[in-house]
Amino acid sequence: MYIALAVLAVAVLYVIFTYNGLVSSRQMVEEAWSGIDVQLKRRADLIPNLIETVKGYANHEKTTLQAVVDLRNRAQAVPAGDVAGRIQAESLLGQALGRLLAVSESYPDLKANENFAELQRALERVEGEIQMSRRYYNGAARALNVKVESFPSNLIAGQFGFGKKPYFEIANEADRAVPTVRF
Q1: Which of 34, 61, 88, 103 has the smallest number of Cβ neighbours within 10 A?
Q2: The domain containing residue 141 runs over which residues?
Q3: Which residues, 6 or more positions from 119, have their beta carbon under 8 angstroms from its beta carbon?
Q4: Where are the alpha helices (DSSP H) in the chain?
Q5: Distance of CA 87 to the CA centre of its chain
Q6: Where are the coiled-coil regions (predicted)?
Q7: SS3 112
């Protein structure tokens, strides 16, 4: 009878420790996503200033400017809990920002404008912070996903409703390609 109680106690302790580990991993993912969310908000706050600066120099580039504004608004409208939707919207916004910065190459006066240069530097810093936050989030998501899929913790994860978290990845395959540089 003592052996049966000891086995039962070990099983209960295992469930408790595994459950707590899953909760801890889920919290790490949520904290990591919060870090990304803060950086994405900083980027979204910089975009209107960047757009207004570029507008003064590039009146005929309205389609590019409007696309960035529309994609920013779409990214901001994604519900807070929709991580996959936010990842997709932010990926599209990042591509549009790249096109906007490419427009600036056509305007030497704009590139020399101090306000534009400072906004561009701030955007580059935020993009670097987003990259670091993405790496942290993806690591936390990986740790949780391993626990959710690994035996025997997957049995406990399934019983308590723990699921896999999506990775924050590059959605467009063209963005993964190595750029061609020609002189």
Answers
A1: 34
A2: 14-169
A3: 46, 49, 50, 53
A4: 2-57, 62-77, 83-104, 108-112, 114-149, 153-159
A5: 6
A6: none
A7: helix
DSSP assigned state of 180: P
For residue 20, what is the domain's CATH number? 1.20.1440.20
Decide if 176 is inside a domain. Answer: no
> pTM of the entire structure?
0.64
Residue given tokens 């409007």 in the structure block: 66
**179 part of a folded domain:** no
Tokens of 83: 């991580």
Q: Which residue has the tokens 């404008």?
A: 113
Instruction: Give, for all 183 residues of the chain, the pLDDT tens digit.
Output: 899 999 999 999 999 999 999 999 999 999 998 888 888 888 888 888 777 776 666 665 667 777 888 888 888 888 877 888 888 888 888 888 887 777 666 666 665 567 777 777 888 888 888 889 889 999 999 999 999 999 999 999 999 999 999 888 766 555 444 444 342
With contact defined as beta carbons under 8 Å apart, do 171 and 92 qualify?
Answer: yes
Report the domain count for the chain. 1
If you count them, how many residues does the chain have?
A: 183
